[in-house]
Amino acid sequence: MENEPPSIFAQEEGRSRRGRLMGKLFGGRERKASGEEQSNDLNDFLRGPSDTLTVAHAGPPVLTKLDTSSASRYPNALTVEQYGDQGALSLRQRSHSPRSRNKKGLVVRFVDTFPEIMGQGGDECDMPTMEISRHRRPRPPPVTSVTAPPRPADILEKPTRAFPERQREDESSFIPTPIRRTQTGYSTISDAPEPEIPAGQNAEAKYLGTPVTSQDEKRKSFIEIHHSQMREAEGLAFANAVRSAGDEKEQPRSSPRPSHDLLRAPPLTQSPEAEEVSLPPEIPPHQQPHSPSPPSQTHQLPPTPNLPRPSSPTRPESPDTKYRRNQALEALENSPTSVYSNNSSINQPYGVPSQRGRFLERENGSGSPSSPLKTGMTLHDAVVAAGEDALHLFVLRTRHLFELFRLHSESVRPLSSCSFEELARAGLWWFLAGRLALEAAVRERPESPTAQQRNEMAKQQAYANLAKGYWLSEEIIPEVAGARNSPIDQGVDEARQTLVANLRKLAISMKRNNFLPPEEALLPQAIDRSVWLEYPQLSQDIIALLWGSSASALAQTQPVGSMEVQDALPLGDSPFFFCFGRLHADVFLMEQGMGSQRFHMPCILSVVRPQKQQDIMFVIASQNNTVQLRISANNAAGPTWDDVRWRSETCTLDVRLPRGFLLVVQCAQPDYRMLWNMYDFSSKVQASLFPLPDEQLVFRSTLRAFQYFDNDPQSRQFPKESVPNCDVALFERLSREGAATGPRTYHVGHRLAIVTGPRTKTLSGINQAFHPHAPVQYGFLRSDQNDPALSLKFENSRAKGNMVLSFNDEKDRLRLHSLLIGTALRTKEQVYAEIPLQGIWFSERYGDTSNKGLMAMSRLPWQRARIINEDNAGERPACVLAEKLRVVFEFKDGMITDRVNVAPGEFKIRLNVANPSCLMVYRMPQRDMTVALTEAKVSRENALGLAQGIDAMQKSASIRTYMFPSVQDLHTFETSITGFTVLFDAVASAFAISRRRMVVPIHKKWEAGMTRIQVVQQDGVMQLLAFFEDFSHGESMSFALKGTDVFECFSRSSKFGLRIDDAKFPLPKVLGDIDDPQAAADAAFVCLDMPELPGEHDDISILFDSEADRDNLIPCLPAPVKGSRLSRG
User: Fold this and answer.
1) Under 8 Å between Cβ of 1082 and 957
2) Mean pLDDT over residues 815-827, rounded?
3) Cα–Cα distance, 892 to 862 (Å, whole number)
4) DSSP state for residue 319 in the 8-state scheme
5) What are the residues whose beta carbons fall under 8 Å from the beta carbon of 1059, sequence distance 6 or more?
6) Which of 278, 636, 927, 968 is the least buried, fewest Cβ under 10 Å from its Cβ?
7) Would you state the pLDDT for residue 382?
8) Are the C-beta atoms of 433 and 466 separated by less than 8 Å?
9) DSSP class of residue 4?
10) Looking at residue 872, what DSSP letter applies?
11) Which of 129-133, 205-209, 741-745 has the highest mean pLDDT?
12) Burial of 54: CB neighbours in 10 Å, binned 0-12, 13-18, 19+
């Protein structure tokens, strides 16, 4: 057969019985057999009737064929336990053979039958040995070579072959006995009795995975000798650890397994069928298949941990597959990856279960089940189980470094003398260092072989640093706690739990992305095994400065409080802080002006933000707790940002400390750029909630929720989902200009700033400007929680979209909306009038309405007008240079805010002769008008038309005609926007001006027909306003009425007149070029605040059709009227 040696007939040589007997008794002790003698002894055993009791091996021959399929990469990395078994098997004296081998024709063969399985034994067996013998099954018939199960060497190479049907029936017919008492202790390999190897059975080479006998006898002997020498050399380095492991106290009943059982790895399969069944359902103890273990093994292999791997739980598992899986498990257990598994076992801590205990519970059956579908495991349990398995696999492949860490740590300082906080701080330090190094190594893409080798070494060092953190947290802290018989501090225990949780997440990521530590043991020679870093010795006064104290140690009234371990070295987010990143930094302490004398301290700089604050914070911490410094906006916690100087040329941060000390933080260039970007971005976002020099804060609040909709799907300016508790601020943008009358302030729009609240980790902010040239489109909504909400549509050159602001109450929504459109009453403001409107018409020229945009505004369904101005303590406020005077015109689907902030001489009016309730106003180009529209009720065409109308009024002068329901409403509106009180308003049938000729005393009259006469007064000054219709000499005129003027009543042809003798007035202007808006305004409109200077002094006669109209005018004049009984005088 293929794996059987050829038949060899023993031949007897000429050696006397006396020589053999003397050699057996004394020869083995006096000298060591040479290679040639060993070869002769082997020939005597196989070819002749020799009774030699020692095992002889042939010398190393020249090999022509070397099988490297089962050779490991690092043959020196083998378990001490295996070394003990193999060493005892290969070096001990062969036991006395009960039969003589001097018969001729003896054939040495190895059986082809499958080993007989009597039952389960060992410490975990729940059936006594007596019961096993009672239920012993009859021996099955021999299995032929065709159906024989594969040998260990073929586990991962050959396809599977089925067991005989008789074997399956025997397994299914086996009925276990009831559960009985089991043994609570266990025996180590050092206490195991030396097994006997019966004749006719082959002893399995445990470390090769194949039987000792092979087709090449000489090759077999050489390999055994070579492996024996290697294991003997390796065992010397860890002999103390093996002895200490044998003297450990008995484990608790809940986890009686030896510590090396924790390092059982999952089976590694190469064939598709083996990979498919790598995670079978949980098998009862009496149904688990057994691998053909060698007779020399005295302890039973524990079951493998239930590792979640993709498998088919409903597919039946053949006995042959079970056999191959268990053979692979045993071969993997003997692999070099678990060489140091026994070196780091410790006692359980005082009242604190370690991560090892959780692994033991899982191996004992109390952990997570292996098949979620079969046991009804939830998704959360499956995720937890996957994390535990990934962490277990990471610890499995790095545990051999734990003893090296212990040796290096003890050489610096005893671990038993360290406090819990120091150990936890060191554990967090190395975890952060390892994670940072691993992220950098994974992110790197090396191309050259040298770079790839360097990258691989960086990964190995990162794995070692992570293993340091786990070893300090889960091995040393519980060990020290158990030795001191004292509980672990709550803060330290929380730090341990956080470290393990983060390492579990990292292990899951490593397993998912296939960069876990390799199965081969990491080379300790190329790894930095140090645990404690070197720091300079500093006085307590200096340490107080590095802790953020601003006073001297002698002046300290109370000691400076130390940070919590997780606050100084945060691994991630906590209930009180958000962590955004961390980096390695070299910190130098020096005195200002003395840069040559400085102390170097390796530190880790973390970027965090308290969940109750808006500004970020830099936390600088060292491993030995010498440095724990916060840099923030709070001067009570340490240095502020004003004390930091950024030096981009050297990539350093200079932090000024009290009493002339300087702390220089040296970073790598990418790290420095990251810190500056984070600080700059945070500062800019938070600064957006404060007014700029040309802005004024008008509203500040906290929203219930905010959602930002941008038409650009790639935009990352703000989260797309609803964000709660955002801060909102509304600013009014102002433009200040110098003028002859003094500085003037104009409204140029609003800026709406929204920033995520302090409870949101991702800092985001938007600044949306609402300019007067575009209408504000809004809508009133209700959120899902029935909260009042405001929808605002925006569109600018960069983006367009919509935003929804949810408020806590209705008042905040109305306040923000009214401020944004300019209708809110602010401090020292009041509403002077609220008047109904019948209509408003806009035009660019006098008598022309051809502009389409202005026509769109004229067609709006106007409702009312509200005049707002400054509260002047009961007196009428100024209407010229009035920054707070504005008129709110409301229509059905929105409103227009017209800010009447005019300079002297800019505001002009005209009264219609035919329509007494019509008022026309001439306005210069206006840039501070706000138009607000209801988004849901206004079409896009109307919104576009209004935008065109606003643009037209910003670029050129405009004429606005207001129609009121009554003349009284017109007077109220006119008084509110001009500041002049209307004393008299009527239509005269004639208005005549007598002009003297230059030479002769002859008068010529300019007589106009229907004329609108109005007398207004402000601060004791009266003016007479006259507006003509179809008058060839002009359109309007105004002049002041004084107390020195002479007034006289007269009647003519049933007309009732009033004459002003020698009146001082300017001549009316003739309407010239109608295309010139300014010329038309000067001719048709009058200015009340700056009337024209009088250039004429002639008589003016005013005729009324009704005597009542004349009688109403007489009391309004400043001087008595001759011939009237109604005069003031």
Assistant:
1) no
2) 93
3) 7
4) H
5) 1047, 1048, 1049, 1050, 1099, 1100, 1101, 1102
6) 636
7) 83
8) no
9) S
10) B
11) 741-745
12) middle
Cα distance between residue 627 and residue 157, in whole Å: 58
Percent of residues, the chain, with pLDDT higher than 90:
43
Cα pseudo-dihedral 169, 171, 173, 178, rounded to 10: 180
Backbone angles phi, psi at 1000, to 5 degrees: -100, 150
What count of other Cβ atoms lies within 10 Å of the Cβ of residue 417? 8
- Read off the tokens for 937: 């009720």
CA distance 473 to 423: 7
Residue 700 tokens, joined: 């500040």
Q: How confident is the model at residue 233 (pLDDT cuts 50, 70, 90)?
A: low
DSSP strand pairing (644-647 vs 1003-1008): unpaired
Main-chain phi, psi angles of 17, to 5 degrees:
-65, -35
Find the DSSP H helices in 317-401: 319-333, 355-363, 372-375, 379-398
| CA distance linking residue 1082 with residue 904, whole number of Å | 15
Tokens 């097994």 correspond to 195
Statement: residue 1039 has pLDDT above 80: yes
The answer to whether the CB of 586 falls within 8 A of the CB of 600 is yes
In our burial notation (b when 16+ CB lie closer than 10 A, e otherwise), range 730-767 reads bbbbbeeeeeeeeeeebbbbbbbbbbbbbebeebbbbb
* Residue ranges in 368-476 assigned as alpha helix (H): 372-375, 379-398, 402-412, 420-443, 449-471
Is residue 396 within 8 A of residue 263, CB to CB? The reply is yes
Tokens 């340091």 belong to residue = 468
Put residue 888 in one of left, alpha, beta given phi > 0 → left and psi -120 to 50 → alpha: beta
Biggest alpha carbon–alpha carbon distance for the chain: 183
More confident: 685 or 208? 685
Q: Please state, in angstroms and as integers, the Cα–Cα distance from residue 262 to each residue in 67, 329, 393, 398, 868, following that order.
A: 31, 13, 10, 13, 82
Give the span between the Cα atoms of 76 and 180, in whole angstroms: 42
DSSP states of 704-734 as a string?
SEEEEEES-TT--SS-SS-EES-EEEEEEEE
* Cβ atoms of 952 and 851 closer than 8 Å: yes
- The reported pLDDT for the residue numbered 710 is 86
Rounded distance between C-alpha atoms, residue 194 and residue 182, angstroms: 24
Q: What is the residue type of 596?
A: S
79 or 469, greater pLDDT:
469
> Please, where are the H alpha helices in 912-1055?
940-955, 967-978
**250 in Cβ contact with 183 (< 8 Å):** no
pTM: 0.65
How many CA atoms lie less than 13 Å away from 436 in the CB half-sphere? 17
Q: For helices 449-471 and 490-513, give the axis angle rounded to 10 degrees.
A: 150
Question: In angstroms, rounded to a whole number, what is the distance separating the alpha carbons of residues 74 and 62?
Answer: 23
Q: Could you tell me if 958 and 992 are in contact, meaning their C-beta atoms sit under 8 angstroms apart?
A: no
Task: Read off the tokens for 511.
Answer: 């397993």
> How far is residue 340's CA from residue 404's CA, in Å, rounded to a whole number?
10
Give 46's contacts (C-beta < 8 A, 6+ positions apart).
8, 10, 108
Of 201-210, 524-533, 642-651, 838-847, the poorest mean pLDDT is in 201-210
- Dist. CA 985–CA 1112, nearest whole Å: 9
| Residues forming a β-bridge with 143 | none
Say how many residues make up the chain.
1129
Q: How far apart are CA 618 and CA 629, in angstroms?
A: 8
CB neighbour list of residue 520: distance below 8 Å, 6 or more residues apart = 72, 73, 74, 77, 336, 337
